[in-house]
């Protein structure tokens, strides 16, 4: 069985369905700290800070792979730094120990472009210096090093991607700095104005959910000898600024209106690189993004119109 921890989250909720499509519904166990309103397939309530409960679940379902998608993200994490550190690290230590003790064959650890800081100019290389500016980023850089340690010391096969901001129509983000890039589509489709918490020219690396899912499973399915990076692979989809995504939306929804009111998340965004070099992922295990900004906009609007009353134009 595959265990997904953090299955109620923006990535986790989509990943569960994606994995069930590939491996079969009965082969994927979803878990999170609260039961969702409704669910199909196996869902287990799990507080991942409880190592015994996590290990018991791994044994109960004879788990062979763990995808660890639970964490407090960059913006929310700054409200309570030590709590964020504790939750992000304790849950991961529990995953690492459960995997080691129960011979789990593979672990997926989501890292983030948040591991980079002001020492990187516009483009982050695979081996750029990591000086994260947020507690979330510090925890992700630490998690990458723990992944490498468990791989070297115990042979645990952990694989990791430094996700850019992820844009999805199926799920809402929770507490990130890139959340604006999801909210903007919902407002546009509902015919409402959008107030952006970043400056118009703040370019960030982003990726569409379909490309993120493809990259994740491609990495996990690659032969172990192809995995040359045991901290976290840089992953790039596209880079754009709020004004660029707004312009892309206005090609489809001409009357869409955006205003800008930067808040504390502007400083977080400015500590991150605008571009990511993902040549190692391309070379080692064949990564290729397929979505452009306009292609993503077309699909996001199409999917969200199914969800809301289509707005007359
Ligand atoms: C965040 N969406 O904003 C997450 C992600 C790169 C951004 O880590 O915190």
TrEMBL record:
Alphabetical list of SUPFAM superfamilies matching this protein: NAD(P)-binding Rossmann-fold domains
Any one of the GO BP annotations: L-threonine catabolic process
Residues of the NAD-dependent epimerase/dehydratase domain: 2-226
Superkingdom, taxonomy of origin: Bacteria
Signal peptide start-end: none
GO molecular function: L-threonine 3-dehydrogenase activity
Entry similarity comment: Belongs to the NAD(P)-dependent epimerase/dehydratase family.
Protein's name according to its UniProt entry: NAD-dependent epimerase/dehydratase family protein
Organism expressing this protein natively: Dyadobacter luticola
């Amino acid at each position: 069985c595959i265990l997904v921890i953090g299955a109620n989250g923006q990535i986790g909720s989509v990943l569960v369905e994606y994995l069930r499509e590939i491996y079969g519904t009965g082969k994927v166990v979803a878990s999170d700290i609260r039961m969702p309103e409704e669910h199909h397939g196996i869902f287990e309530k799990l507080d991942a800070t409880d190592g015994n409960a996590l290990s018991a679940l791994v044994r109960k379902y004879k788990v062979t792979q763990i995808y660890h998608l639970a964490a407090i993200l960059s913006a929310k994490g700054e409200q309570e730094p030590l709590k964020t550190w504790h939750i992000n690290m304790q849950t991961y230590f529990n995953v690492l120990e459960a995997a080691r003790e129960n011979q789990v064959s593979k672990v997926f650890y989501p890292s983030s472009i948040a591991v980079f800081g002001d020492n990187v100019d516009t483009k982050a290389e695979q081996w750029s210096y990591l000086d994260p500016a947020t507690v979330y980023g510090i925890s992700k850089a630490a998690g990458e090093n723990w992944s490498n340690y468990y791989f070297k010391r115990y042979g645990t096969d952990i694989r990791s991607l430094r996700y850019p901001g992820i844009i999805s129509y199926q799920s809402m983000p929770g507490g990130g700095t890139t959340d604006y890039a999801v909210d903007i589509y919902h407002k546009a489709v509902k015919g409402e104005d959008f107030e952006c918490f970043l400056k118009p020219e703040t370019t960030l690396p982003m990726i569409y959910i379909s490309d993120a899912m493809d990259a994740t499973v491609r990495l996990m399915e690659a032969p172990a000898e192809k995995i040359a990076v045991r901290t976290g692979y840089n992953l790039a989809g596209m880079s754009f600024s709020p004004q660029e995504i707004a312009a892309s939306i206005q090609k489809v929804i001409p009357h869409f209106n955006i205003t800008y009111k930067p808040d504390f998340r502007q400083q977080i965004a400015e500590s991150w690189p605008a571009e990511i070099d993902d040549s190692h992922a391309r070379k080692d295990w064949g990564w290729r993004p397929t979505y452009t900004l306009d292609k993503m906009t077309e699909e996001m609007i199409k999917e969200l119109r199914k969800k809301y009353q289509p707005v007359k134009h």
